[in-house]
Amino acid sequence: MAVASQQEAKSSSFEFPKSYNFPPFFSPQPTALTRQAQLKKWSILIQRYCKHHRIFKLTIIDALETPLFHNATLKKRLSLRDAKAAIDYMASKDGGERAEWLGPEKSEAWIWWRKPDEWATVIATWVEETGQKGTVLTLYELVQGETTEKQEFYGLDMEVLRKSLNTLVKKGKAQVFGTEDQQGVKFF
């Protein structure tokens, strides 16, 4: 199966909300209240889509060509400016700080369908439940190891993992040590 058709097959298993099939959803709404509701719907859609596809970092220009921002059936797509507006909303307090721009050019953003502190809680719960406190684990085995294959954090982006572990370090619940490519973590 070609890469494009694999992506289409995976996208077809994602259930888009009803508003996605409504042409005005792809155009900025003129009234403030309606625009705010529209941005909220885009935020929820982006988070759900990224969670479904395990996307942690979104490159905006590339995403414009995916079903996330392009409804081929309607022949409608979100413009670059409107996609950035949706991410801006997500990055704001009103949007729940569910995105974070990477750099001033706003070409890439973290999409926080789970924020680093939420991932930290999931990981800390697993550590507690499996009796891993006091054990040293490599970051690689934490997100790619056999013991974590069935965990939600399996396959977690390494940068997101580091951000998450830093929240545990600040709370005195973990210590990260080693060099960039050979890092380990000990949980307390």
TrEMBL record:
Molecular function via GO: protein homodimerization activity; structural molecule activity
InterPro entries named in the record: ESCRT-II_cplx_Vps25-sub (IPR008570), ESCRT-II_cplx_Vps25-sub_N (IPR014041), WH-like_DNA-bd_sf (IPR036388), WH_DNA-bd_sf (IPR036390)
Repeat among keywords: no
Keywords on record: Cytoplasm, Protein transport, Transport
Name of one Pfam family that matches: ESCRT-II
Cellular localization per UniProt: Cytoplasm
GO CC, any one term: ESCRT II complex
Swiss-Prot/TrEMBL GO biological process terms: macroautophagy; protein transport to vacuole involved in ubiquitin-dependent protein catabolic process via the multivesicular body sorting pathway
UniProt name for this protein: Vacuolar protein-sorting-associated protein 25
Stated family: Belongs to the VPS25 family.
Origin: domain of life: Eukaryota
UniProt main location, coarse: cytoplasm
